[in-house]
Design brief:
The chain is of the alpha/beta class. It contains eleven helices and seven strands. The protein is globular and about 55 Å long.
Length: about 280
């Protein structure tokens, strides 16, 4: 394990890492992951099955939990759909890998080596334990490293992604590192919430989300400026906003609701926040 001082270089990074370490018992992530042992740190996509709200009251929350987990797993599937042609001989990078959910799904789909990086030592330990329990620790590994300085070899990765993690870093620094580790023609995929430049500033709802998660949601334009500056050319941009709203509507009915559901729904419905997928090629 690397020295903490080498990984956490600013007070803000230390505070983000502390959040990841001290919120290790976050009931939302843990309860959803317990459904099938696949632990995510992102939200969901798609219409939910309304039947989960019907039936016996005593099992209603269990049904909702299973459905929320199905939607968050569907989100990771959509991200992986946009990675392009990946073979078992390729290597992938998960920037901000959390407890490892998307990394395990990538390995299961492509059979390739996947490395994840996180500045939370707790998350890295949890994910590596998961890899051992799944019998894939020789192919899926997690590292206590900064996504702005991954220490992986230049042009060593066929693909890389960020799944709701870019709001914690400077985009120009991140995309300089992503561009460095990707081979020519490699694919980067980002799923993120971003503020709407057209709205003319941050809304109150977006500010509440930032405060809740100790993050800094970037405006939509910042992504394309930072990519253009670092040889990443978008090939596909998908507005997922309408597809993520059902997740938040269902989560608001759950016993796992944290109170942040209303700001998300407000921001999406008023148009001050967009949920985007951006796929870009390294040129």
């Amino acid at each position: 394990m690397r020295d903490t001082r080498e990984v956490l270089r600013t007070d803000y990074q230390k505070s983000v890492a502390a959040y990841g370490n001290t919120h290790q018992q976050d009931p939302v992530n843990l309860r959803l992951g317990e459904v099938d042992g696949l632990y995510h740190h992102h939200y969901g996509l798609g219409e939910y099955d309304p039947s989960v709200l019907e039936g016996p009251e005593e099992t209603r929350q269990e049904r909702i939990t299973r459905e929320l987990h199905r939607l968050e797993t569907a989100q990771a599937d959509v991200l992986l759909d946009h990675l392009g042609a990946v073979t078992a001989d390729d290597m992938l990078l998960d920037c901000g890998s959390g407890r490892g959910g998307t990394s395990f799904m990538a390995h299961q789909r492509f059979g390739c080596q996947v490395d994840g990086v996180s500045i939370s030592e707790y998350q890295v330990g949890f994910a590596n334990t998961q890899a051992e329990e799944r019998g894939v620790s020789d192919r899926v590994r997690f590292h206590f490293r900064n996504m702005l300085d991954t220490r992986f070899e230049t042009a060593s990765r066929r693909g890389a992604w960020t799944n709701e993690t870019t709001m914690y870093v400077d985009l120009f620094e991140l995309y300089a590192e992503v561009s460095r580790v990707l081979e020519f023609g490699g694919r980067y995929v980002c799923v993120t919430g971003c503020s709407n430049d057209v709205a003319g500033g941050r809304s109150m709802a977006v500010s509440r989300i930032d405060e809740h998660y100790t993050c800094n949601i970037h405006p939509r334009s910042a992504y394309f400026k930072a990519m253009a500056a670092n040889n990443l050319v978008p090939i596909n941009v998908v507005d997922l906003t309408a597809q993520t709203i059902p997740y938040w509507e269902l989560r608001a009915t759950s016993s796992l609701a944290t109170g942040i559901e209303e700001p998300f729904l407000t921001a999406y419905e008023e148009g001050s926040l967009h949920y985007l997928l951006i796929a870009a090629d390294r040129v």
